[in-house]
Amino acid sequence: xxxxxxxxxxxxxxxxxxxxxxxxxxxxxxxxxxxxxxxxxxxxxxxxxxxxxxxxxxxxxxxxxxxxxxxxxxxxxxxxxxxxxxxxxxxxxxxxxxxxxxxxxxxxxxxxxxxxxxxxxxxxxxxxxxxxxxxxxxxxxxxxxxxxxxxxxxxxxxxxxxxxxxxxxxxxxxxxxxxxxxxxxxxxxxxxxxxxxxxxxxxxxxxxxxxxxxxxxxxxxxxxxx
Length: 226
What we know:
- By secondary structure, the protein is mainly beta.
- It has one helix at about 1-15; strands at about 30-35, 40-50, 55-65, 70-85, 85-95, 100-110, 115-120, 125, 130, 145, 155-170, 170-185, 195-200, 205-215, 215-225.
- The chain has one domain (about 20-225).
- It is globular, with a radius of gyration of 17 Å.
């Protein structure tokens, strides 16, 4: 059984190793709803704009957590990532967490073949093999490290194939592959670690659901694609 699972995982990797931005050429909008402890608390929207070989993906995310009518945690963020063919050439974001601003300004240096990052948690160079840690792009499941879309920090990750599953969501049925995505460095404080479950629909190149536990049980659920 273990050998069979490993074979399936490598078949999956081979199927997405050729994945590229062209998979999203027909996308205009992705809408996700955000739940905490089963309660809807906000939304995350991705908008796709194409012009020739260039594609821009903008994200708007907003949610808030209330306890006894009092807001104890809120996030509002906006970002833009720009690709030229398959290459990420820039990413910019501003995020307010409880009114504290965090940011990322990233550009691709063609001469160095590296990203140059100016972020609220990291300043410096980074390999162009990194991916922005957003949930619209299924390449996050084949990358060994990701750049935080909120602060610019770089986190190495381990992606593990769990198995196939059928899930029902918003009156739709999906045949998905289930993965875990965790920080490679387990010595990190728990609140700094990556620790996600991800359900991916390989037929449509869509991440259907993400879940994690941190001060409650959270889920991002794909509601609509246009």
